Amino acid sequence: MITESPSVYNAYDFTAQVGKTASEMRKPAMFTDAPHEECGVFGIYAPGEDVARLTFFGLYALQHRGQESAGIAVSDGRTINTHKEMGLVAQIFDERSLRHLKGHLAIGHTRYSTTGSSHVINAQPFTMHTLLGPLAVGHNGNLTNAASLRRQLMERGVGLMTSSDSEVATMLLAGLEGANWDERIKGFTQCVEGAYCLTILTHDALYAVRDPWGLRPLCLGKLGANGWVVASESCALDTIGAEFVREVEPGEVLHIDMNGPKTIAHNPAPRSALCLFEYIYFARPDSELQGQLIHQVRMELGRQLVHEAPVDADLVVGVPDSALPAAIGYAQESGIPYGEGLIKNRYIGRTFIQPDQRLRQQGVALKLNPLRDMLAGKRVVLIDDSIVRGTTSGPIIKLLRKAGATEVHMRVSSPPIRHPCFMGVDMASYPELIAYNKSVEEIRQQIEADSLAYLSMDGLLRATGRDPQGFCGACFTGEYPFNVAEVGKEIFELTSG
């Protein structure tokens, strides 16, 4: 049996989308030019614990990976209860909603849409009844063969309610042959292609699934004597007091129940291809990935920039928040003082109230405010982690100049982004990418910096300290780890099948 909070369908105003084009529906969040987050997944098996509350705090730690919707599904051994809505974790859950989520195993999800637009019907986890009992699925990533899988399901007479590839994954799991969930989930991994990490909840077990390339991160933790946790990042384990055990391996399927975790399948690709943007931007700085603290790697990105693109200046300033470690590293290696020249309003992008025309013209000033006393009369090195469309770099540079900076030299702690991502990151299309058809000098002129330099691919790989064959850097090089089809967020809304 599955029950779902009735309030889930009251959290989104569908009428606000009437008349909008697909491109309008997929515009980036207000005043941001960063590549948008993927999703965060969390799962827990912990008899005797308040798993709904622990999942809430786990999702809270993963909020940076998706701010459009969130949900929790809990099993008590017989039934699965679910609550999900649009918005932030703290807006969706309260004591009353958590009180109804009783059980000893759960999964949770925070979403940023990649395939399937930002509607409440696309919120996760997806739940359904099957002949094997209730099923709930949380998915991070992008299935590159989702369109063909969707058509196959429809040809078999399966009705689909949403425009999400995650629903396709759920329906596929429910419809595959197999006497038990172990068999069906192993069969699932043979059918799907692309980037995916899944947490799967049945009435009595938790599953963790990572794609063969390991494009998205997933880790395993231990909670107390009998509890086990899986999460997109180790910071979620820290938040609930779980001990990091190891990363889920590429191509691995974990079955977790009263007997603990058991690997039921392990079929890795010829090489791993972890997304490099986890190191550059996505992961929280206090998370560990492949044995390295993200904060330390980002500082090393800044140090590498000094050797590749030194400049005479008086002050190093980072664009908050993800570029701050790289700015600190640049300052330490160059000997140029580091200072907080920009203060970020961390809440302006989280409101559903849109600014009027006058405020919209303020643009970046709504989100960032310069510290004039720090900047006046200074030659500034401005560090950012990436430039995607180029829509905020220019306004930020103007802010610094208006605050009194005499020179602004921009340094970017990643290579130019010349290619879109088809594997679970909303990173714009070719025409929208500023570096796709512009040289570095042309970009410099457009953003009106005194100088501009990007970190090289070699410098980026040196900073990670890992085998360069173990990463996906397709957005920089155009070399995808496998064949991809260009799949937009609204592809299923814009086609009839």
Could you give the topology of this structure?
Layout: E1 2-4, H1 22-25, E2 39-45, H2 51-61, E3 69-75, E4 80-86, H3 89-92, H4 95-99, E5 105-111, E6 126-130, E7 133-143, H5 146-155, H6 165-175, H7 181-191, E8 194-201, E9 206-210, E10 219-223, E11 227-231, H8 234-239, E12 243-247, E13 252-257, E14 260-266, E15 274-275, H9 277-282, E16 288-289, E17 292-293, H10 294-308, E18 315-318, H11 324-334, E19 342-344, H12 357-362, E20 368-370, H13 372-375, E21 379-384, H14 393-402, E22 407-412, H15 440-447, E23 451-454, H16 457-464, E24 471-472, H17 474-477, H18 491-494
Helix pairs in contact: 5-6, 6-7, 10-11, 10-16
Structural features, described:
This protein has two domains: 2-270, Aminohydrolase, N-terminal nucleophile (Ntn) domain (Glutamine Phosphoribosylpyrophosphate, subunit 1, domain 1), CATH 3.60.20.10; 288-477, 3-Layer(aba) Sandwich (Rossmann fold). It starts with a strand and ends with a helix. Strands 1-4-3-5-2-11-10-12 form an eight-stranded mixed beta sheet. Strands 6-7-8-9-13-14 form a six-stranded antiparallel beta sheet, covered by helices on one side. Strands 18-21-22-23 form a four-stranded parallel beta sheet, with helices on both faces. The radius of gyration is 23 Å and the shape is elongated. It contains 18 helices and 24 strands. Helix 5 crosses helix 6 (165-175), helix 10 (294-308) packs across helix 11 and helix 10 (294-308) runs antiparallel to helix 16 (457-464). Helix content is 28%, strand content 25%. With 497 residues, the chain is α+β, with helices and mostly antiparallel strands. Helix 15 (440-447) links the parallel strand 22 and strand 23.
